[in-house]
Amino acid sequence: MAKILLVEDELIISTPFSIVLKSKGHQVDNAENGNEALRLCQKKSYDLILLDIMMPYCNGVEFLKKANLKTTAPNTRVVVLTNLSGGNEIDETLMLGAAKTVLKSSITPALLLTLVDEELTLSKK
Amino acid sequence: MSNNTKTTHTKNYYSQENSTDQLERYKLLVENIEDYAIFLLDTEGHIVSWNLGAEKFKGYKPNEIIGKHFSVFYSEEDKKSGKPARELEESKANGRVEDEGWRIRKDGSRFWANVIITALFDRQGIHRGFAKVTRDLTERKLHEDTLFDANVKLEASYKEMQRLNELKDEFVSLASHQLRTPATGVKQYLGILLEGYMGELTEPQLDCLQKAYESNEREIEIINDLLQVAQLDAGKVSLNKAPTLLCDVIENIIDEQVEMFKVRQQQVVLKIPDHTLVGSVDPIRFRMVLENLIDNASKYTMSKGKIIISLTRAGKFYKISIQDNGVGIKKSDIKKLFEKFSRLSNPLTKNVSGSGLGLYWAGKIIQLHGGHIDLDSVPKKGTTFSVFLPAEKTNG
Predict the structure, then answer these.
(1) Phi and psi dihedrals of A12, rounded to 5?
(2) B181 and A109 in contact by Cβ < 8 A?
(3) Which member of A10, A20, A23 has the closest CB to residue B185?
(4) What is the ipTM of this complex?
(5) Per CATH, the architecture of B33-136 is what?
(6) Homologous superfamily of A3-124
(7) Beta strand pairing status for A48-51 and A77-82?
(8) B24-71 pLDDT tens trace
(9) Residue A96 φ/ψ, nearest 5 degrees
């Protein structure tokens, strides 16, 4: 089972995501913005970060810039879950090391688990 | 050659009259011209002759104006700036001067004049005065001014329209993103219920949730369509073209939609004689266009119907046809089909979800590829959509 950090400001989305992930035994921490995520990353290491982009105080792009995961946590994979379709922010997250971006409104519980499984398999390689 | 002939002829003509008659004729000619004001000035600029045209344009009788200085026709501003004297000097120095501007009539009203002042010198080169020819171009000037004003207004309206259009695009883009969040929340909660995370549900409960889920999916689909069209209209879509095997795209879509055809009991026939055709397309968007057309063909075809998809080369284009034997489209509706929010009335429309934006978007995307979509349809017989894509140049 994996350690997952879910960075999402909307409870209506983070709550069901957490329910689904925890049901498979994953350990899930929640952060409501990039600043909270940074604090958690300093204390713990994660196998996977599921990251929203549009968040108050510190958005997903700013978090990736500040966290510098390539150096501080090279084994942590980042998947961006956003409802933005296209735009500079999405490209920036990919340049800052995110493995992929997924449109949040296309995700179902089953798809979320498949996505997480795929990423965890890749992170072990 | 022709000039010589003309000169000889003219000489002969004038030689038939004595010089007093000639002068008299010239005088009469000039005096009676109504369309031009033609008059003479002395070396200082005082008026020494007057014709009918001058009287008509400027309103003075000969006895009222002869002897007066020609600056009387200029505005106070022009007089103060020394324009009349300047024009005489320039004419004297260069032989002539031409000017267009407002001049003043006897009654004080303005008219737009084209003025030519020619300096007159005798055979000894002594300056004898000026000939002044004036045309009244007020009507043309007013037309030009009206046109200019209309153009300025048109440009302002166009800029305003562009600004409003940009605001609209921004609004749609932002609103669509904001609308996705609650719809995503609904989707997740319905998802965990439907997928059993909250325990077993009865069939009627599952049925209700499934309907809610489908309705929410439709909302997400409309939001997605709105966002895509807003991006397209805002010119924010740039194609990422890559050489793509066209048959692969078609076969992949059919493989993915095979369940849909099974449920609707529809037969799909692929006619691809050449599996090597490579198009320069944006693979993601091109695939979405074909998905859209194939999905439409299926939606508007009855159960047990047939859909034929073919890929051929047609001159400078690759032609991908999606032919169904469904409900068809009335001739009067065909034009509306590629417009925004076009949803036509036919026996299947009420069972089919859609935003009315899909074909508008598809048409525009194919246009961005340098191609077009054609449509052939007969009500109750079926419809064929044909996508034409510029073909790669082949050797020979």
Answers:
(1) -65, -15
(2) no
(3) A10
(4) 0.90
(5) 2-Layer Sandwich (3.30)
(6) Response regulator (3.40.50.2300)
(7) parallel
(8) 888 888 888 888 999 999 999 999 999 999 998 899 999 999 999 999
(9) -90, 10
